[in-house]
Design brief:
Chain lengths: 295, 305
């Protein structure tokens, strides 16, 4: 495109070879910029985690005396902000997995009823879900907080799970409905003629055939909960109930916190989603395509 | 041109409201109907308890007109509105435009560009908190990583980023772009791969290459996807709390707050929950038209299908 229009520098050579060389060079330059752009904050995170406490702001651009001390501190919970680290890590997993499970269950039941049983007026629910999908979550945080206190769920992980499930189900319903269209209705009909109840069709036909969509949406829901900060911060307060993001933000309460411990914690927290993302990359891409493109 | 229409019909998840067809001969009855109702109960309960009720409660909390008079008289609020418009307006457009161009770059068949894509996805794969903490620490104070790098490579003394309004606002915008551009690039990449090759072949025969192929083939085919994604990105960025809270934190002196962070501060740090709700609700006149356009786009897409 515009790359191809770049003026040549060596007019002696055949035009197309010159053009190719220019395009190649520009591509390499762009690639180089993208690598720097993507990795710089990540590198900084690793750099701080490997530094000594006093050396964080010394102006070094590579670790002079790299030490794994901060990771050891995180591992052994050897700092008072990190006293409950593994407990909090477990809480994050609990919230994420429960969000995943409930989103899949509720989302698949709903789209099975609307899409396969063809319940009259089912589209009303689809539109309700679409509306939920476009409400910015942070705009609902204040009333949500009040209501959770009213339900008696203050400082309880289930309140966060409820919030995450609320915001993840609409996406699940859309993806499942899109994907469900590719499963032939004749399967349901023949099962019905054989006397299967809707529950049996859901368990034995619908769910197994939906497996790729379930993986895509499950990953999405888990990562949504893992990425979320605001609701966890508002709804969880005691150290043994809170999740890692809330614990991480506690470091910011003081100007003298050991930033290397904070960054080591952040890196440990970032490992599961990165592993998951690269492990399920194929399915994630499939999920995006299903939702984003196949209309 | 059914294939073109399919490509034109790209978009985010679409509400399905087919005309009701009794696929089950004779419709649902008896126990099947009960099953259907039972299957819907969980979602209806979630919707009522955690969407409808909070929305109604929020509308009630922010329903007093005096609240809006208070807000209009507050210079911090007015500044926040300007910040939000700048943050969203610049952020969304730059992000979507660059993502669109980069998706073309990543269409390349070359092996190293495919490998680069995996690396480029890293900011998106990182959880939000570590990602934004890293960006903040890169810019903080006089010896954040970026300033150290500038001084080591070029001998320049970098600015103190969060002491300047424009630099701090810019840092928020760049951080958001850094985190979310990979995601939109992936969406556009998927959109581009869905364009059938024969359309390009036909354009080739007609002699359209390079810029003209882009302007007359690729872009028109992806325009709808681009619009829907831009609207969604706008809605999400309006509600974005984490980026501003962790990157600039409102610095310098609460001058770079956006509506989402200001609302939370008012509700929880200044014990004025109603004012907080009013702050975020004041964005509704802007958001509702966006939602309507988005819903309509989604509905016209169904007609094309």
């Amino acid at each position: 495109m515009s790359l191809a229009l770049a003026p040549g520098r060596r007019p002696g050579r055949p035009r197309y070879r010159l053009r190719r060389a220019v395009v190649e060079t520009l591509c390499l330059a762009l690639g180089f910029v993208l690598v720097i752009w993507s990795l710089m904050p990540v590198y900084n995170m690793v750099l701080i985690a490997l530094s000594e406490h006093g050396a964080v702001f010394s102006g070094d651009i590579w670790p002079h005396a790299p030490s794994l001390e901060s990771f050891v501190v995180v591992w052994t919970q050897g700092f008072w902000y990190l006293e409950h680290f593994w407990r909090q890590f477990g809480n994050s997993f609990f919230v994420g997995l429960m969000t995943m499970f409930l989103t899949l269950l509720i989302g698949s039941l709903t789209s099975f009823t609307i899409g396969r049983l063809r319940l009259r007026h089912g589209w009303l629910l689809t539109n309700a879900a679409l509306l939920t999908y476009v409400i910015p979550a942070s705009f609902l945080a204040i009333p949500f907080y009040r209501i959770m206190q009213g339900y008696g769920l203050g400082d309880n992980p289930w309140s966060v799970i409820a919030a995450m499930v609320t915001f993840a189900t609409p996406y699940a319903i859309f993806i499942f409905q899109q994907y469900g269209k590719s499963i032939p209705m004749e399967l349901d009909e023949s099962a019905r003629i054989d006397g299967a109840s809707p529950l049996q069709i859901y368990v034995w036909i619908y769910l197994p055939l939906m497996a790729p969509a379930l993986v895509a949406v499950g990953t999405y829901a888990l990562l949504l909960a893992w990425n979320e900060y605001l609701y966890q911060f508002l709804l969880l307060s005691s150290p043994d109930v809170m999740t890692v993001p809330v614990a991480l933000a506690q470091f910011l309460n003081s100007d003298e916190s050991p930033w290397n411990y904070m960054m080591a914690t952040a890196i440990v927290y970032a490992v599961p989603p990165i592993v998951m993302y690269y492990g399920f990359r194929r399915y994630m891409a499939a999920g995006l395509t299903m939702g984003g493109v196949k209309g | 041109m059914s294939s073109t229409q399919q490509v034109l019909a790209v978009g985010r998840p679409v509400a399905v409201n087919h005309p009701w067809r009794p696929v089950w001969p004779g419709g649902l009855h008896g126990s099947e109907y009960s099953w259907a109702i039972a299957f819907l109960i969980p979602y209806v309960a979630v919707f009522l308890a955690f969407v409808a009720y909070p929305v109604a409660y929020g509308l009630w909390m922010g329903s007093k007109p005096e609240l809006y008079a208070d807000l209009a008289a507050d210079p911090l609020y007015l500044r926040t509105v300007v910040n939000t418009l700048l943050y969203v307006g610049i952020g969304v457009n730059v992000k979507m435009f660059l993502a669109f161009l980069l998706s073309g770059f990543f269409m390349s068949r070359s092996r190293w560009i495919k490998a680069l894509l995996i690396l480029y996805m890293l900011p998106w794969a990182l959880p939000a908190i570590p990602a934004f903490l890293a960006v903040h620490w890169m810019l903080v104070g006089q010896w954040g990583f970026l300033n150290s790098l500038l001084s080591a490579l070029f001998g320049i003394d970098g600015p103190i980023w969060f002491n300047s309004y424009w630099l701090a606002l810019g840092a928020n915008i760049v951080a958001d772009i850094w985190k979310w551009m990979p995601f939109w690039t992936l969406i556009f990449l998927a959109g581009r791969t869905a364009i059938p090759q024969d359309i390009y072949d036909a354009a080739d025969v007609d002699g359209a290459t390079g810029v003209r192929r882009f302007a007359h083939v690729t872009f028109p085919l992806l325009a709808n996807l681009y619009l829907v994604c831009t609207l969604l990105a706008t809605l999400w960025m309006f509600g974005d709390f984490t980026t501003v809270y962790f990157v600039s934190g409102g610095a310098p002196a609460r001058s770079t707050e956006v509506l989402a962070t200001l609302g939370i501060h008012e509700a929880f740090d200044f014990a004025a929950p109603q004012l907080g709700v009013a702050t975020v609700m004041s964005a509704l006149p802007l958001l509702i038209p966006l939602v309507i356009v988005l819903m309509r786009k989604v509905h016209t897409m169904e007609v094309q299908l």
